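Structure tokens please, single chain.
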Amino acid sequence: MSQLRIIPSLLLRGTGFYKTVRFKDPVYLGDPMNILRIFNEKEVDEIVIFDIAATPQTQEPNYSLLQDMASECFMPLAYGGGIRNLDQMKKLFRIGFEKVVVNSSAFDGPELLQKAAQIFGSQSVVVCIDVKKSAFGSYEAVAVGARRQTGWKPEEWAKHVAGLGVGEIIINSVDHDGTMQGYDIPLLRRVADAVKVPVIASGGAGKVQDFAAAIKDGHASACAAGAMFVFQGRHRAVLINVPSPKEVEAALGNN
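Here you go.
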């Protein structure tokens, strides 16, 4: 699309795609295959799919459905949700996914990340850090769909997992999720300045200017977005809408 990596982030629950607001009130978007076909036509850079039910319900990834998705897509795919061991990762790579995204299980056994990076390569292993902000202004990494507190500051957890060999880190603001009111820039900057691996902004994008803010002010390396790509207008009608490369470049000041 553009020199900046723009990544649609799609939430899978059961056999459909949904979108949440602050991890609550999931809205059904439609059949995954139809939505992925549209993103194919839009020629997005890559897609990340999160199964939001897999970890809370201790489910295996739906390999059959995911294989169909991988067969449909022409762009690189990443998957997160319910990943607890290396065998699951192997299956995902075999069916066509280029990256695996680990979140909650890393807190229970960080050595999984180290082993995965050694076996599959750092470029294939991504950590997603969901972050909530307290009423007192402090940030904390949370897990299991923001149901579990971890006690980790996001920048400290980011440094820890980066030291284990992961290739990228997604910083996802629970408080900004689905609001389309912009990324949490101070959070992004805090984490990006603490690590040397690329940091992907997630949670809150509503316009292309938010991408520019994440890169220039938040020091992110790439931007993921959900609601911005699937909703249109103030009534949030479901419509796949991807900004053009010219729009993105203009927002970045590269035109």
